[in-house]
Amino acid sequence: MKVLLCVGAAVGVGIASGQQNPPQWPDTVQVFDPSQSAGDIQEKVNAAFEQNGGHDPANHGQFSDKRFAFLFKPGSYTTDVPVGFYTQVLGLGTAPGDVVFTSERGVYCEEGDYYYAGGALDTFWRSAENFRTQATWDNTAGPGMLWAVSQAAPLRRVQVDHALTVYEYQPPYQGAGYSSGGFFANVEVGLVSSREHSNSSMPTPLLRSGATSTDGPPAVNLGSQQQWFARNSHVSQWNGGVWNVVVTGVDGAPASHCSNQDNNIPITNVPTTPLVAEKPYITIDDGGKYSLVVPAPKTDSHGSDFNDTAAKVIGFEQVYVTQPTDTAETINAKLSAGLHVVLSPAIYDLDHPLQVTHDDQVLLGLGMATLRPTNATEAVVVGNVDGARVAGIIAQAGPASGTSASPALIRFGDGSHAGTVFNPSFMHDVFCRVGGPDGTEGDPVAADVMVEVNSGFVIGDNMWFWRADHTVEGESDKRFNPVNHGLLVRGNDVTMYGLAVEHTLQDLVQWSGERGCVPSLIYLGMCCDRTLVKCFVFVCFAGRLQTNLLLPVRAAIHGRSHVWGPGICRVPRQRHRD
């Protein structure tokens, strides 16, 4: 692994200071200390879950307007932390082992629908980062951590002592709950327990029809996951997976294999990650001062990496923490002054886009902070700068203005900026949606494109761009949530890890930049009139690729670029209970 240093870059030039440290967190952020009683902490996390989680009805809170972030100071916690929609759990240590959950379940996520055909298919928009879990909950596939999710539910910078199970089985149904499209990065699984493991200590999990786990050390158990993307991690064993699994830089993952026959895992394994940086995170010191840690880019890397000696450590004197009532004008004034911005959990209605105009500037959302343009503009515009980091946000389409819709929800550059390999810009955990909580006849929304990348050396790291196939009122109608494209890439040297695009009305992805790299799954959900289907495309190519799988939807990629992980399948979207 090589760490890239920004030689000659104007790091920190023009950055303002003078912000409060510790910051003034709003009520949507709760900071916990190990000296607090477990009962007090449990009461607060349960109150959030009652609003944004649970199974009565299924997927309760899916389109809630509530947002939560739970920050845990270094120490040990005996609390079980259920993670519902629009909820984020963050450890504040400099290493994952600084915050340890010793409870039976620890930090966990159940599927949103116990009925198997629903399962975790709609278990979206939540995350957990930067802690160690010693969970021993014996659910589905043996003792360990349960994280039964689909898209937009990342797990990062976590040490899991026992097994990590990313699907769920609930009796008496005939199979495990369906699940589809999760992500983890910089994770260690089973490395502590594997040293003490005996073959008799792990029960055989129910994975899917005809598939069983082999005995061995604690594992990543994919089970019913139809597809999964993992990056730069270390696992002691890997079990299950239905259609396509793609990993890059994951030590301990199985070798590439091209089918699921005879209980094999259909997987594409890229041994090293070409160019990446880990997501920025927040720490606290013994004096109660907060810092924003921005890991450095690295090349040809693999395995987990919790040693951030080359990272930039930025005191919160240079970080503005938003309040839920902040306007675009307020936030842009802070960005213009050169401050980094942490977006507190909230829904922000923006009459102008947020403008990232400085090199190395960070825009970091907590608790699935949601940005919604109100004047048919972008939600975020990144200028012709190097080293920008946009992370942890939902960009949600707003209403059209007359005949005009947002040209893009997020845009990088104007096409004149080549970027640099020594200081690329990043999107980490960036999710866009057109419809869902809206996009109905009474509340229509629209956009032309979800994300447009015109600059060079922009790297995506876990993205889901979704034209809603269902809304708060039921099945969606394309008249009320139109969007033409999920991703347009015109810049050169652009890389995308864990890219998912669904249901747009024209080309899901158009890629005309040169030397692009997609060592990840491209998860393309197609929409044909009002018949909704999903298609998973993992294509390896050099030169020009165009797949015309089911009109009117195409993925068109041009130029000298590379994608790893071939495979196609088509599944009806409708689900019915017996």
Produce a short descriptive summary:
By secondary structure, this protein is mostly beta strands.
Q: Can you tell me the overall shape?
A: globular
Task: List segments where confidence is low: pLDDT < 50 over at least 5 consecutive residues.
Answer: 7-13, 196-214, 527-555, 566-578
Total beta strands? 50
Distance between the ends: 52 Å
- Provide the structure class: mainly beta
The proportion of strand residues reads 35-45%
Radius of gyration over all CA atoms, rounded: 22 Å
Largest sheet: 12 strands, mixed
Query: How many H/I helical runs?
Result: 2
Describe the structure.
The C terminus is likely disordered. The protein is built from two helices and 50 strands. The protein has two domains: 308 residues, 3 Solenoid (Pectate Lyase C-like); 237 residues. The longest helix is centred in the first third of the chain and has 15 residues. Helix 2 links the parallel strand 27 and strand 28. The chain has 578 residues and is mainly beta. The strands form ten sheets. Strands 27, 28, 29, 31, 33, 35, 37, 41, 44, 45, 46 and 50 form a twelve-stranded mixed sheet that branches. Strands 2, 3, 4, 6, 7, 9, 12, 14, 18, 20 and 21 form an eleven-stranded parallel sheet that branches.
Features:
Pectate Lyase C-like, 2 domains, 2 helices, disordered C terminus
Task: Draw up the topology in text.
Layout lengths: L1 E2 L25 E4 L5 H15 L15 E5 L2 E3 L3 E2 L4 E5 L7 E3 L5 E2 L17 E8 L3 E2 L4 E4 L8 E6 L2 E3 L16 E8 L16 E3 L2 E2 L7 E2 L5 E9 L2 E2 L4 E8 L15 E4 L2 E4 L4 E4 L5 E5 L3 E4 L10 E4 L3 E3 L6 H9 L3 E4 L3 E4 L3 E3 L5 E12 L6 E3 L6 E8 L13 E3 L12 E10 L12 E7 L4 E10 L2 E2 L2 E2 L7 E7 L5 E8 L6 E3 L5 E2 L3 E4 L1 E2 L2 E7 L7 E6 L2 E5 L4 E2 L6 E3 L6
